[in-house]
Design a protein that fits this description.
Gfo/Idh/MocA family oxidoreductase; oxidoreductase; Rossmann fold; 318 residues; Gfo/Idh/MocA-like_OxRdtase_N; 8-stranded mixed β-sheet; 6-stranded parallel β-sheet; Dihydrodipicolinate Reductase, domain 2; 14 strands; Gfo/Idh/MocA_domain; NAD(P)-bd_dom_sf
């Protein structure tokens, strides 16, 4: 599949472009930037063609699909333009900052028989499938709660994640991970019962948050996130007879050896798993969806609704 990359964002250069270049079913055809020098340098690193301007990339008939790593607030117009140009789209999370726009784009993709996929990579890591299987097998009894946390150290003041006009803020960046974990593991309709988004003096966006969710059957979720904190990336599923704890849950490197901690009536044990590459897996899922024409959008839509509900509950929906 011939892919064009829309922009030279850090995640594209550091994670996605190397993974695309190594993927046996993907050819990186072109990388576009509004800055000709940046496009040329990135294209040189990844052995593809530089393109100046995003419109020029979409006009290229040799490009079958585009990857969109732009700031969140720019996703909607450029994803819409890419779909109108007949391209399949892999877009960084969140797909948009408004549920209505998310539904509009998914509907547009379906109408044109194109694949639109939100790039939430952690759900493609094998360790989470193991966790779901353990829960389904009753390893911890009846599932009662989820506690998920993702925090990162402070960012430079000029980082785009501090700019509200670009869709910045902790909820749309690090908060997506625990929110998606709740959607992924609890399933069913989730109700926001409380939310706090902290916006410190001198900041124009929220830099930390906490959320309480209630799901089907009374299961609860406590989610915390922030971008001025020590690094933490983990979740814990608690049940009537035990719990499962996963550390390095959301952004493990490809050589990381996962260790799932299981506490049950039989005692406590650590379950080591083989390393897995969630970036390569996410790309394979995108290629497979394009080949089969069967993209899934249910979790993306549920996540979009939850993000909007959290902002409303925290009083930041304006």
């Amino acid at each position: 599949m011939r892919v064009g990359v829309m922009g030279c964002a850090e995640i594209a250069r550091r994670r996605m472009l190397p993974a695309m270049k190594a993927h046996p079913l993907i050819e990186v055809t072109a990388v576009a930037s509004r800055d000709a020098a940046k496009a040329a340098e990135t294209a040189r690193l990844f052995d593809c063609r530089p393109v100046v301007g995003y419109d020029a990339l979409l006009a290229d008939d040799s490009v079958q699909a585009v990857y969109v790593p732009l700031p969140a607030a720019l996703h909607a117009p450029w994803v819409k333009a890419a779909l109108a140009a007949g391209k399949h789209v892999l877009a960084e999370k969140p797909l948009t900052t408004e549920p209505a726009r998310t539904r509009e784009l998914i509907g547009q993709a379906r109408a044109r028989e194109l694949v639109l996929m939100e790039n939430v990579m952690f759900v493609h890591h094998a360790q989470h499938a193991v966790v779901r299987r353990l829960v389904a097998q009753g390893e911890i009894g009846e599932l009662l709660s989820l506690d998920a946390t993702f925090t990162i150290p402070a960012l430079p003041d000029d980082d785009i994640r501090h700019q509200p006009e670009l869709g910045g803020g902790s909820l749309y960046d690090v908060g997506v991970y625990p929110v998606r974990a709740a959607v992924h593991f609890l399933q069913g309709e989730l109700e926001v019962r409380g939310a706090v988004l902290e916006r410190p003096s001198g900041r124009r966006v929220d830099t930390a948050g906490a959320v309480l969710l209630r799901g089907p059957g009374g299961v609860t979720a406590h989610l915390t996130f922030g971008m001025e904190h020590a690094y933490r990336s983990r979740y814990e599923l608690s049940g009537s007879t035990g719990r499962i704890l996963v550390d390095r849950a959301f952004t493990p490197p490809a050589d990381h050896v996962p260790q799932i901690l299981i506490e049950s009536r039989a005692g406590t044990r650590s379950c080591p798993l083989p390393p897995d590459d969630q970036v390569a897996n996410a790309l394979s899922a995108f290629v497979s969806a394009v080949r089969t024409g069967t993209p899934s959008s249910a979790e993306c839509l549920a996540q979009a609704d939850l993000l909007a509900d959290i902002r409303r509950a925290a009083g930041l929906d304006g």
